[in-house]
Amino acid sequence: MDVTNPGDEPAPSTKRHRPNTPITKGPSVDDFTPTTMTLDAFNQLSRNQKKKILRQELWDQRSGEFREKQRAKRSVLRKRHKQRVRLGEVPAKRKLDEQERSGHKIIIDMDFDDKMHDTEIKSICSQLVRCYSTNRHGPLFVDLHITKLHERCRARFDKAIADHTEWPESRIKFHDTELLDVFGTDKLVYLTADSPNEITELDTQKVYVVGGLVDKNRYKRLTLDKAEQMGVAHARLPIGQYVQMASRKVITVNQIFEILVKFVEAGDWKQAFLEVIPQRKFNEGKGGGAKVVKGAVAEDAEDVDEDADENTDEAEVSDDAEDVSDHEGSV
Predict the structure, then answer these.
(1) C-alpha span between 195 and 192 (Å, rounded)
(2) Cα separation, 134 vs 136, whole angstroms
């Protein structure tokens, strides 16, 4: 039934559109001829496999143009960051000799390559770059070790973050071997949310291990089981003692590392949590205020909120790592 009156003007559409802008689409797999394999072999693949090859070949063709745009974007960000430094809005980047060694040691255990999808591999590699950036720019730095960097993660670093070989080993050191080959079992403390133990301080005589994993909660007790199999101590962060959030705590690897570094600098867990954890995590209760959740427990690096990296200064990261942007969806 039409309820409009005769002569009424039609209501303006609220849908945004650009009538003069042509809509262009990429090639379809139905009319695509691959260059990396024969057409007969291509036609025998499933449609999803064809799409994957199509995206990869399009990326290979356009990656130069994309990287040039990324370099231009990073140049703008660097100029903007320098302007903010001049205005006193952010601190200036410290030189290596302006940082003081804290004596604390942290390992990011990358022995989970086979537990992650390709997109998760990209994510964890980007998080490692942010860890390096955090360790590079603070007043204090820790001895950061990346162990068992192999297979797809190693390939990702060698291809997309090739300048990591020029990073100073005093701020980050890469190892192809297992963490037990770097430090003894008596010094290791594996940080995992499943541990019944809770740390209160960070001991310079201990080495704290963070599991380098992005898994969307597919694997339960993975890091705790590994710690028990190795016969090393384990503990969890004391988030529930100092901060109570409106939602289940989900923290990325780089956020855990930054929390540890902040605690090393200030000696205050609450301050470290509040400075690093995104503020939206404290405002998800009804009415817009912080909602207290009793019995909250800390999560570890296995639980990852992909967009929870807003505390990282993009200009600072790009100064030290030129090509960390993922190319997915950019063609």
Answers:
(1) 6
(2) 5
User: Distance between terminal CA atoms of the chain?
Assistant: 46
How far apart CA 192 and CA 197 sit, in angstroms, is: 9
User: Do residues 161 and 121 make contact, with C-beta atoms less than 8 angstroms apart?
Assistant: no
Q: Is 323 a catalytic residue?
A: no
Estimate to the nearest angstrom the gap between the alpha carbon of 168 and the chain centroid: 21
Identify the active-site residue in 109, 215, 303, 320. Answer: 215
Contacts of 283 (CB under 8 A, 6+ apart): 246, 289, 290
**101 has which bridge partners?**
141
**Residue 73 burial (CB count, 10 A):** 13
Task: Band the pLDDT of 24: cuts 50, 70, 90.
Answer: low
Is 110:149 a contact under the CB 8 Å cutoff?
Answer: yes
Q: 226-249 pLDDT, tens per residue?
A: 999 999 999 999 988 888 765 555
pTM of the model as a whole: 0.69
Percent of the chain with pLDDT over 90: 53
